[in-house]
Amino acid sequence: MFLSSETFAASCEAPRSGTNPRTGLPYDDVLGTALDEKNWLRSWTNELYLWYDEVEDRDPAGYGVLEYFDLLVTEELTETGAPKDNFHFSLPTDQWLSQTQSGVAVGYGLQWAIIDGRPPRDVAVAYWDRENSVGLPARGTRVVSVDGVDVIWANDQASVDTLNAAFFPDSVGEQHTFTFEYANGSRETVTYTARALATDPVQYVRVIDAAMGRRVGYLLFTDHIATAESELKSAVETLAAEGIDELVLDLRYNGGGLLAIASQLAYMIAGDVPTAGRIFETLVFNDKYPETNPVTGQPLQPMPFFDTTLGFSDLPSEQPLPALNLPRVFVLTGASTCSASESIINSLRGVDLEVVQVGGTTCGKPYGFYPTDNCGTTYFSIQFQGLNDKGFGDYPAGFTPGGTGPTGVVGCGVADDFSRDLGDPAEWRLSAALNFINTGSCGGTLASASSYRSDAGGLRAGGQERDARVLKPAWQENRILEYEGWR
């Protein structure tokens, strides 16, 4: 028996007081119990979870609230033997609002590439936010020890916990000591203090001259957060003014985020002609809701290609977005290209805009959710699958450059090049895209490169074709809808 989740909503063991920053009104919280919170989770999951009929119905009384939420998930596996749902998590609501609305997160201003997560472990600097890059080591610099723990060989739980605490600090003011190894073999030890830093989601916008007078725009886009709306609009306006003929969109480290931002960017790439009246993404919920969006209560309506601002950023809503009106786009991808980023690929292919994929196979997240607050915790539980204009959305193993079948995309498989900065025309993935523009094919040795770094970087991958992962908070690696109209 499942009572309506509304029966238990906002009945909290520790109700909040004051004003809800989202509504400007007092919180709805009233005094309740932890069991009320767990019963809300139980009913809410049964109502909205995409695979609700695969969740074991356990008695919530014997668990903590968050412990119980972690159990409200399918235990089924995919055909590859991987868990069917890897995307189930929660965050304190104030942390969620801070991160998504302002782009502020705790860290040092750089992102880590996990080239190999098991001993002999290999962790390096993937990139840094340009706003916070002063004094930070170059891309590709290895980390050899952290707080006295050997990064490469540590294998006991206490040492691994030390590494995780340092690489991903929780609190402003934490200090951790890193020893870096540079390409020439020299080492340096530096102590960093964790700060609250604003993420810069659009970091490089440049124009590169290619063969036959073609002008190629390059855009590095790392996070689908609210502040990206105005930055993407400005970047596209700059590239349009430069009269580019091609666009290389670098999504290799973009784990996703707000789906509406992906729709806006897809429109700005393609323009009116291929997108007018077409579907960016159709949401499919569980079988209880064939015609109604269970969150909004409205009839199911596909998300269009948004051609105006939506008020995510400091821009007012309904300002026309610029457009490049390109017939094709080159997308640089890797194992960290997830969710909303994959929607850009899938949805542009759905309206027959040519997508050329360069890099590695994407992570495979055709699912998403509406973040839902209850009693100060925001819960993320898979509620829908996204389909493009052609009704395709089955890519749980990701999109593969040069692959076969419906998830194979024309393009080149190219390893990540940690010896060069992102945006450098000689960097392997960007170089391969430029080569394709110039010659019409992958060609050369770049497409079969199996090393993660050039010889100067000093490391080889042992001939294995793997791809580094850039680990970000879970809220940056998903397809997210917010319920305020389309927000």
Q: How does the SSE layout of this entry go?
A:
Elements: E1 11-12, E2 30-31, H1 34-48, H2 65-71, E3 89-92, H3 93-102, E4 104-107, E5 110-116, E6 122-128, E7 142-146, E8 149-150, H4 157-167, E9 175-181, E10 187-193, E11 195-198, E12 202-209, E13 215-221, H5 228-241, E14 246-250, E15 257-258, H6 259-270, H7 272-275, E16 279-284, E17 303-304, E18 328-333, H8 340-350, E19 354-359, E20 367-369, E21 372-374, E22 377-380, E23 384-387, E24 400-401, E25 408-409, E26 411-413, H9 428-439, E27 469-470, E28 479-480
Parallel strand pairs: 1-2, 13-14, 14-18, 15-28, 18-19, 19-26, 20-28, 24-25
Antiparallel strand pairs: 3-22, 4-11, 5-6, 5-27, 7-8, 7-9, 9-10, 12-13, 16-17, 16-23, 20-23, 21-22
What labels describe this entry?
487 residues; alpha/beta; six-stranded mixed beta sheet; 9 helices; globular; disordered C terminus
Commentary on this structure:
20% of the residues lie in helices and 24% in strands. The strands form 8 sheets. Strands 12-13-14-18-19-26 form a 6-stranded mixed sheet, with helices on both faces. Strands 15-28-20-23-16-17 form a 6-stranded mixed sheet. A 4-stranded antiparallel sheet has the order 8-7-9-10, with helices on one face. With 487 residues, the protein is an alpha/beta fold. The chain is globular and about 70 Å long. The protein has helices at residues 34-48, 65-71, 93-102, 157-167, 228-241, 259-270, 272-275, 340-350, 428-439, and strands spanning 11-12, 30-31, 89-92, 104-107, 110-116, 122-128, 142-146, 149-150, 175-181, 187-193, 195-198, 202-209, 215-221, 246-250, 257-258, 279-284, 303-304, 328-333, 354-359, 367-369, 372-374, 377-380, 384-387, 400-401, 408-409, 411-413, 469-470, 479-480.
